[in-house]
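Hey, sorry to bother you again with one of my protein questions. There's a protein on my desk that I can't quite get my head around. No rush at all, and the record is pasted right below.
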Amino acid sequence: MSKGLYDYLKNSNEIRDSQKAILKAIDLALYQKNLDEAKQLFEKLNKNAIPPNSKFKIHLTFKEMQDNIIEYDEIIKGFQIDTIRIEIGYDLVPLVNSLKDNMIARIKSARKSLSLERGIVLPAIRVIDNLNLDNDQYQIFIKGALIDEGRLKINHHFVFPYPNGKLDLIEGIEEVEGAFKQKGKWITDDIKDKAEQQGYTIFTPLEIIDTHIREIAKSNASQFINRKEVYRLLEQIKLSDPIVYEEINKKSSLYQVKFILKKLLNDQISIRDIDGIFEAIIDALEESKIYEMIYDNVRVSQSNLIIENILKGKAQLKTIYFDEELEEQFIRSLFEKDYHLYHNINENMLEKIKSQLKEIIEEKIPKKNVPVVVVTPKIIRSIVDDVLYELRPLVNVLSKEELKTSRYFFESENIGLITFQRAS
């Protein structure tokens, strides 16, 4: 925006209220693209806009004023960041434009299914071509930050080495696919039938990028919870359960609700049961105002879903416990600041705890394909979870209350004990 008459009129104390009102009307007329009305208002204002004794003598024409506003609008648009953006190389453009099956249709389907699965409205996903990328490359951005990337071969199919575990039985271009970082091969369409006969699992390029987008959206769902989404969920509960809506507004803050919802999604827990989650927040606030304690009480209300997510169709959990002395050490280390929980356990002890845990897993679960749960008292669950965060998704941290209250059927086997003696 120039420092001409327009800025002067907007900011000067010398200008009367009536002239400021005209300026606002010009703003509105330009925004509505009513140029004739804006020009008439500008001429009316320009006749006697600057007091004779003012040092400000710069004249700004209507055209300059109009151009400044348009330029300003373009700059503002440049500041706006796509929540989710996918950039594709030149060879991948046909995946967007194809009439039979294309990325846009896949993205629409992914947004709908993920919104239903996670309980939030997934933001629009923008797809643009980027000639700076390799022709077969794509990149996925969230809020302007590069999250992940991959490569696709048009007119090829991607094969995984299942069920035989070997890739050398078929010709192709070796690649690591984007979503799960699994090795595979891009094979030409003419040997697809041969690959199927040999039992390989086969995917099209669209299926590969579709899966990648869905996995990125799921693992980053907590980033899509903002004030606007919290307000939408509150309006939803207002219609379905006015009593809960009234209590949640009375007892909690917007920040508290946002904190809980983001934490749930960050832990890969759906917030579809928003009525139950809000009720749990209200109940938890009766016990504590500390955010982590509120959160862990809410988790107990969602224990069936949590354990189902961890098991992913498997029948058994492998559990690891802290001994009583180590639990007490954590409990004594807790302190509260600004309604959040912290601990003062030294880094050396934390590293020894992680080393013990890794030893148990390597000894008892060599294939690392069975879910492992570290079980702790509820009061320290969040703290222990932060300490062991780097070991996700293999290791999850549950409270004893979550295991006890879950009605989801599963078997559990205790495979080890982390001791204070070895950690100290």
Q: What stands out?
A: Residues 1-15, 50-60, 70-77 have pLDDT under 50 and may be disordered.
